[in-house]
């Protein structure tokens, strides 16, 4: 069959395919951490209002973290390896910032509020950096903030164990002074890269 209409439809479909693929590649490219500016739709989709309790037992909301760039990392204090590594990297980035570390909100949010009490969070964050802020809350509050930041977490109990682990995504979320999402950095980011990104937002 050689209908001009069919040929035109095929050409239109091919163009559409190329556009959709280009859009997807653009997004993946950004997610790989190679671009600084997120696609607008993604920027609007990450972050937002939350209510939590800090490691000193104070009730806080997202509004308490305005006026300085904020870097957020999700995890839990019983995490065997991933979280401690991420938080060590964050602490090293804060050290690189020197006096400017006081102009940043570094935040660690637990995804395991059952075990991560205020007292547990207080001890844990202090072990990494004096400026690190720990946030815990009710299970609902944690679920809400994780949803806002598009963070995945799930309790898993290894076979033969009575203790559970929490599977979770681990990335650094960087928010601007206005609380709007600025960029994300992967768990493999270096302290230098994190410090440099925060500096651009000071
Ligand atoms: Ni972890």
Task: Encode the helix/strand succession as letters.
Answer: HHEEEHEHEHEEEEH
Number of helical stretches of at least 4 residues: 6
Oligomer: single chain
Unreliable residue runs? none
Q: Which small-molecule ligands are present, each listed once?
A: nickel (II) ion
Cross-sheet strand order for the largest sheet: 2-1-5-4-3-8-9
Computed Rg: 20 Å
Q: What structural class results from the helix and strand content?
A: alpha+beta
Could you tell me the number of beta strands?
A: 9
Q: pLDDT average, as an integer?
A: 88
Largest beta-sheet details? 7 strands, mixed
Give the helix level as a range of percent.
40-55%
First-to-last CA distance: 63 Å
Write structural notes for this entry.
- The protein has helices spanning 4-31, 40-45, 82-97, 118-128, 139-148, 191-201, and strands spanning 51-54, 59-61, 70-75, 105-110, 133-136, 153-156, 165-168, 171-175, 181-186.
- The protein is 41% helix and 21% strand.
- The chain has a 7-stranded mixed β-sheet with strand order 2-1-5-4-3-8-9. Strands 6-7 form a two-stranded antiparallel ribbon.
- Nickel (II) ion binds at residues 75-76, 79, 82-83, 168, 170.
List keywords for this structure.
binds nickel (II) ion, 7-stranded mixed sheet, two-stranded antiparallel ribbon, globular, alpha+beta, 9 strands, 202 residues, 21% strand
């Amino acid at each position: 069959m050689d209908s001009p209409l069919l040929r035109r439809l095929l050409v239109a479909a091919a163009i559409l395919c190329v556009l959709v693929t280009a859009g997807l590649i653009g997004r993946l490219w950004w997610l790989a951490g190679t671009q600084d500016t997120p696609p607008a739709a993604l920027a609007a989709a990450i972050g937002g209002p939350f209510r939590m309790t800090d490691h000193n037992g104070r009730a806080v909301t997202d509004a308490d973290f305005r006026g300085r760039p904020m870097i957020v990392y999700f995890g839990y204090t019983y995490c065997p390896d991933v979280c401690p590594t991420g938080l060590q990297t964050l602490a090293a980035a804060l050290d690189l910032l020197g006096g400017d570390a006081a102009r940043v909100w570094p935040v660690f949010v637990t995804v395991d509020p059952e075990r991560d009490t205020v007292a547990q969070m207080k001890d844990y964050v202090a072990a990494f950096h004096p400026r690190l802020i720990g946030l815990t809350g009710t299970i609902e509050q944690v679920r809400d903030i994780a949803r806002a930041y598009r963070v995945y977490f799930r309790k898993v109990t290894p076979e033969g164990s009575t203790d559970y682990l929490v599977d979770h995504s681990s990335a650094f979320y960087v928010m601007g002074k206005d609380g709007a999402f600025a960029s994300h950095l992967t768990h493999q980011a270096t302290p230098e890269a994190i410090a440099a990104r925060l500096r651009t937002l000071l």
